[in-house]
Design brief:
By secondary structure, this protein is α/β, with parallel strands linked by helices. It folds into two domains: 44 residues, no CATH class; 311 residues, Rossmann fold. The protein is built from 15 helices and seven strands. Strands 3-4-2-5-1-6-7 form a seven-stranded mixed β-sheet, sandwiched between helices. A hairpin with a 6-residue loop joins strand 3 and strand 4. The longest helix is centred in the first third of the chain and has 17 residues. The termini are far apart. The C terminus is likely disordered. The structure holds adenosine-5'-triphosphate and magnesium ion. Magnesium ion (MG) binds next to helix 3. It comes from Geodermatophilus obscurus (strain ATCC 25078 / DSM 43160 / JCM 3152 / CCUG 61914 / KCC A-0152 / KCTC 9177 / NBRC 13315 / NRRL B-3577 / G-20). This is Cobyrinic acid ac-diamide synthase. May play a role in septum formation. Pfam families: AAA_31 (PF13614).
Length: 358
């Protein structure tokens, strides 16, 4: 079987060389424009990041596009030459489904690395999307992990340790450039593990009413993690998803988000596009399912922006270990943003294992 990246490139080249006469309807023209964007991007491989980027994709609100973004950003980064590992940390296992990775009960999965003694190397699976993309799947076992982890030593650091050990054990030429962690829609121990494991957070925000509600809670939690568990974590990227250009509301939400978060928001906006929602049904990302669709080209654009922003990253503070308490960092979780949220309530972050021992 040929490399899917190669297939994508060839199909785009073929479409580009077709005459404009064949593209005489608005929809066909849109498809042509979309494929041209994708093809143009392909002429310029994505740049290698300054350091390995471990990106936690989080938003406790359900259905905002966390999984879709993890999958499609992951596929786009890999198709454009960057080794990428996607970790499915949601018991629903949707990321695993979309990447064509088995995740029935008994499949070696992230649960075995979090709660058991497996290394990540033992639970990483190749994907059908592209050879440079691998995935740690989630099985339904993970649903019990929130409770099982409560009594585990250094429970907040389980994923971080697994990732660090994995990266250290891999030969440099096999180390991923990107590790993307897809979080469940909650602020429990699984998301906490992802925030402690990551160096940065990407928050997908759906361009819908209520989109901003609860964001303050998430940012507060990231701040708590930053102060107590992982001084390196910062919100570096906001991605606007499911944008419906026909509604004023989508524009208003997008504008409000840009006003609050400024340059953290990617220029690329993901439109609401039926091909995006169809793709998982075929065990695929939209980038491989329908490369010329607007959903696909937008994700490729978003991935390209993400990659370009990753070339020059600030150095990371020294990594904490469960045995060494971390000094409170200066600044807030978002570095540049003071988000005026009305949510008074903050979900308490479970105390760290050090605090438990004290
Ligand atoms: N751009 C889009 N256009 C159309 N449908 C989309 C788009 N992005 C996501 N969807 C659909 O919206 C639904 C929710 O998306 P997704 O599963 O990515 O959200 P999520 O934040 O991961 O959800 P959860 O919180 O349950 O994990 C899915 O059915 C997905 O196919
Ligand atoms: Mg999801």
């Amino acid at each position: 079987m040929t490399d899917p990246g190669q297939r994508l490139r060839s199909s785009l080249t073929a479409e580009q060389s077709a005459s404009a006469v064949e593209f005489d309807s608005p929809i066909a023209m849109e498809a042509l424009r979309a494929t041209q964007v994708l093809h143009a991007a392909d002429q310029e491989p994505f740049p290698v990041p300054g350091r390995i980027r471990v990106i936690t994709i989080a938003n406790q609100k359900g259905g905002v596009g966390k999984t879709t973004s993890s999958v499609n950003l992951g596929v786009a980064l890999a198709l454009y030459g960057l080794r990428t590992l996607v970790i499915d940390l949601d018991p629903q296992g949707n990321t695993s489904t979309a990447l064509g990775v088995p995740h029935s009960v008994g499949t070696p999965s992230v649960y075995d690395a979090l709660v058991g003694d497996s290394s990540l190397a033992e639970v990483v699976h190749p994907t059908t999307a592209t050879p440079l993309l691998s995935c740690v799947p989630a099985t339904i076992d993970l649903a019990g992990a929130e409770i099982e982890l409560v009594s585990v030593v250094a429970r907040e650091y389980r994923l971080r340790r697994a990732i660090e050990t994995h990266l250290q054990e891999l030969p440099p030429e096999q180390r991923p450039h990107y590790v993307l962690i897809d979080c469940p829609p909650s602020l429990g121990l699984l998301t906490l593990n992802a925030l402690v494991a990551g160096d940065e957070v990407l928050i997908p925000i759906q361009c819908e009413y209520y989109a901003l509600e609860g964001l303050g809670q998430l940012l507060n939690n990231i701040d708590l993690v930053r102060r107590h568990l992982n001084p390196g974590i910062a919100v570096r990227t906001i991605l606007l998803t499911m944008y419906d250009g026909r509604t004023k509301l989508a524009d208003q939400v997008a504008e409000e988000v840009r006003n609050h978060f400024g340059s953290l928001v990617l220029d690329a906006v993901i439109p609401r596009n039926v091909r995006v929602s169809e793709a998982p049904g075929y065990g695929q990302s939209v980038v491989t399912y329908d490369p010329g669709s607007r959903g696909s080209t937008s994700y490729v654009e978003a991935a390209r922006e993400l990659a370009h922003r990753g070339v020059a990253l600030p150095p990371l503070p020294s990594r904490p270990t469960p045995g060494s308490p971390v000094a409170a960092p200066v600044g807030s979780a978002t570095d540049v943003v003071a988000f005026p949220d009305t949510d008074a309530a903050t979900v308490p972050v479970p105390p760290s294992s050090e605090e438990n021992k004290a």
